[in-house]
Amino acid sequence: MRFVRNLIPLSVILTLGVGVACKKPEPAPVEPPKPVAPAGPTQEEIDAQKRAAEEAARRKAEAEAEAARKAAAAAEAEKAAAYKRAVEAALKDINFDFDKSDIREADKAKLQAIADFLKAYPQAKLQIEGHCDERGTVEYNLGLGERRSHAAQAYLVGLGVAADRLSTISYGKEKPKVQGHDEQSWLENRRCEFKLQ
Amino acid sequence: MLAPALMAQAPQGQEVVLEASAGTRLGIAVPRPTATGVPEAKVASDFHAVLLKDLDEAGPFSVIRAGAPAGTDPASYKAWVDAGTEWLLTTTIAKSGDGTVDVVAQVVDVKAAQDKKARTAVFTKRYTGRETALRRMAHKLADDLMARLTGQAGVASTSIVFVRQMSPGIKELFQMDRDGANVIPITTYRSLTLSPTVAPDGRIAFVTYKGGAPEIWGQRKVGGPNEKLYPLAGKPGGHCFCPVWSPDGKRLALVQGDRRGNTDIVVLDIATLKVRRLTDSNCINTDPSWNPAGTQLAFTSDREGGPQVYLMEEDGSNVRRLTREGTYNGSPAWSPSGSMIAYVSRFEGKFDLFVYKLGDGKSYQITTGVASSESPSWSPDERRIVFTSGSRGGMQLYTTDLSGNTLRKLTDFDGCQSPKWIRSR
């Protein structure tokens, strides 16, 4: 019966498999076995013990899996938050002078940050939107927005970004960022916006 | 656009009274119509007021309002003449039992009658339609009076297609009568819809962003559905803007972006789908406008620095600069006769309308004022221009004659752009 008693937890352990520490079997008895009284655990007791052990192991495994899931989710969330922070930090509008599409000195650092972001996140693709202020004609501004988006694209390609990660679109003066009608509003509206694709 | 029920009867075959170019205006008096079966208020608002506005804006008429005598019988002719009247237009409106409305219009040349000339009734015409067609009957009468006076059909019955902002970033096409009535939507894409153009047979084309990138959509057939016209299926097209039907409606001039951010003018043959590029320069080329023969185009380009208006042949050859004054000129619109090009010029932060007369090689300023005036489009009879005007972004639609003296506001809502004045659709 010792053999049987020893074997039961072991078999339980084996069926439970991974993650549960195995107990070493007790050392073999030195003395020859004495006659054993027929009294011992009943079959019911053995089964109950088995069930309890199985339940404990299952709970432990579940708790560990849950913890692993939470840890993974937290890591994922942190990664997403870091990505969002990186997006927000990097994808800033750049602005232009009236009727110009030249990259301004002040905006070169912003474009470098965008290039760095794209190097850090090789899966990211951007659409560059070219926009104008309200003071030109509708049709000419569509052309000007086109040129601004390509100027930003060309500058980023010059910083080592693959061109196929940068699409362009012109909205002319059709989608102003701010509704004001003064120099500051016009400057804010003469812009390229960088949108994740 | 005229309903079958609305038919002008008794065609006139008489001599033209005034040449279109004549500077003098004919005094016309339009007493209140005599009406039976139609409420007086309805006649006043839907017929009389509409007709007076049409004649005011037509150009060669001077509507007599002050000093009108009470009657319209021959005994009153002297008093009408004394008030400045040449033509006395009387109208009777009668509704019959089946709901049909008859309008009979008659013009007596009271001056000729005063001078005891033989023929004094210079115009008699009958119009028939439902009561809901009173506005259109008034427009038709105004157009017939113009034809009688000048030999050229008037434009009272014409329409204007334009872009209207519904909410930020959402713009749709609309159409309305030339006097601002009957505003109806053409598109409901809930996207950016821009730059409408209408062929002589009424087919429309425009730019839409509904698929993301700007594409040119429109009608291949009269009355057909709007479908994608450009870029062509299976071919990379780049971004495209600003479609303009050729005068014969067979070709579409449009603006196409290249890989470097430049834009060129290309011409698409709708039947063969052949595309011909007319410009190829390191700059913005946009705003194509055909001459009425379809042999030349005016366009805007910044090839010499700032935007200026240029002309070229339909194959892209013989490019020459038209505008010489100002640092920002654009939106050329070739006039229906081919003799003038309207455009806008920017000065001190706002645009004004100008007209370049090709005959004398000079520009004339049409609008002045604090508002910015943009996007000119000619009336089919070349007497007026529709355009957008406003300040602080609140653009509405206006029309003006070339003197700038009869400015008329058409809309009572903001966010209007790119009007196109058309005969029919």
Measured on Cα atoms, how large is the radius of gyration of chain A? 35 Å
Major pleated sheet of chain A? 4 strands, mixed
Domains of chain B (count):
2
Give the CATH architecture of the largest domain in chain B: 6 Propeller
Secondary structure: helix percent of chain B: 10-25%
- The end-to-end span of chain B amounts to 7 Å
Task: Give the CA-CA distance, first to last residue of chain A.
Answer: 69 Å
Structural class by sheet pairing and helices of chain A:
alpha+beta
Overall pLDDT score of chain A: 86
> Largest interface, and how many residues on either side?
A-B, 29 and 41 residues
Total discrete domains of chain A = 2
Overall geometric form of chain A: rod-shaped
Structural class designation of chain B = mainly beta
Overall geometric form of chain B: elongated
Poorly predicted runs of chain B are 1-22
CATH architecture term of the largest domain in chain A: 2-Layer Sandwich
